[in-house]
Amino acid sequence: MADPIFSFLLLLPLALLLLLYFIVRPRPTTVPIKNRHVFITGGSSGIGLALAHRAASEGAKVSILARSFDKLEEAKNYILLSTGIDVTVFAADVRDYEAVSKAVEVAGPIDVLVINQGVFVAQELEKQGLDEIKFMVDVNLMGSFNMIKAALPRMKDRKDHGPGSIALMSSQVGQVGIYGYAAYSASKFGLRGLAEALQQEVIVDDIHVSLIFPPATDTPGLTKETKKRPQLTNIITESSSAMKAEEVAKKALDGIKSASFIVPCNFEGLLLSIATVGLSPQRSFMMAFVEVVAAGIIRIVALGFQWNWYTSIHKWHGQNKSS
Ligand SMILES: NC(=O)c1ccc[n+]([C@@H]2O[C@H](COP(=O)([O-])OP(=O)(O)OC[C@H]3O[C@@H](n4cnc5c(N)ncnc54)[C@H](OP(=O)(O)O)[C@@H]3O)[C@@H](O)[C@H]2O)c1
């Protein structure tokens, strides 16, 4: 007869898997992009441009929106030359609701809306001007509300009624606050509340929300930002190297197509997503299993990170006071 303890240890994970299989919500689905309209804000540079390129290569009808018409034209030509596919461009500022509404109306029904525009300036909150703080919140958070408010009614009325998607480009700094990013973090943490609530509101319309969490990514935006970072921000973030925009775009698009709510972009991001998962939706019972089983150990790792960051901060202040 089998050892009862052995049987219990074997049955426990199976029972947990079975339970998770029945309770995970929303249920798994996929969002096709071939021959469908993918509208990407901030699509003229960095991650947005890589996403537009990738979506076009996979057969989507792509529209991109950003402020500078010249940069949009450059992006359009680059995608045309490398894929032979023509994307439609819209010059508008996401802070201007009327302008984005007009763009969305001209663009026609959207199947996949990727809200990717973003601005980031690292600075200690005490030194950062309120105008710069407001700028980040307005572009990153309010701009996202403007885009969703403009596009959602037409997305709900879309003709082909296949699954739709609203994807929001957050950041790992939207999962954990880091020295120097108080304003940027706040704007990206805000996207999480927006995404969690919105998913509940649009699930009956077969619209699926994805929240993408890239790490540092080699883009024109990052190059500009790293030029004037606080020293402590560099010390705390020095262990992570930047991903390529194309790699992030691939992870992001795969996440959107599999309708994943949380989309990490690398292994470190996966651990961070498990550590910060909270009450967010999870479609995959296997991922839910990993989240449940790994929770305790990942919390220990997280506390280790905090120990490291606070030690660095105290050390840096100690050295700069004595010198
Ligand atoms: N790069 C990173 O390390 C990193 C890491 C994590 C998350 N992210 C996030 O990923 C997204 C893309 O970042 P990126 O590094 O690729 O940035 P990027 O190279 O600076 O590109 C930003 C894009 O957003 C557009 N944009 C900026 N402000 C806008 C506005 N008010 N209205 C409309 N479009 C606007 C820009 O075009 P115009 O200037 O012409 O408007 C450009 O197309 C952002 O949400 C960012 O927060 C980036």
Mean pLDDT across all amino acids: 96
Q: Give Rg in angstroms.
A: 21 Å
* Structural classification: alpha/beta
CATH class value: Alpha Beta
**What percent of residues are in strands?**
5-15%
- Please provide the count of β strands: 9
CATH architecture: 3-Layer(aba) Sandwich
Count of the separate structural domains: 1
* SSE ordering: HEHEHEHEHEHEEHHEHEHH
Main sheet overview? 7 strands, parallel
What's the shape?
globular
Q: Could you characterize what this model shows?
A:
The protein has 323 residues and is α/β, with parallel strands linked by helices. It has a single domain, classed as NAD(P)-binding Rossmann-like Domain (Rossmann fold), CATH 3.40.50. The chain has helices spanning 4-23, 46-57, 69-83, 97-107, 130-156, 182-202, 220-226, 231-237, 245-257, 267-275, 285-322, and strands at 37-41, 61-66, 88-91, 112-115, 164-169, 207-213, 217-218, 243-244, 262-264. The strands form 2 sheets. It has a 7-stranded parallel beta sheet, sandwiched between helices. The chain has a two-stranded parallel ribbon with strand order 7-8. β1 (37-41), α2 and β2 form a beta-alpha-beta unit. α4 runs parallel beside α5, α5 packs parallel to α6 and α10 (267-275) packs across α11 (285-322). The longest helix is centred in the C-terminal third of the chain and has 38 residues, at 285-322. It binds NADP nicotinamide-adenine-dinucleotide phosphate. The site of NADP nicotinamide-adenine-dinucleotide phosphate (NAP) has 30 residues, from α2, α5 and α7.
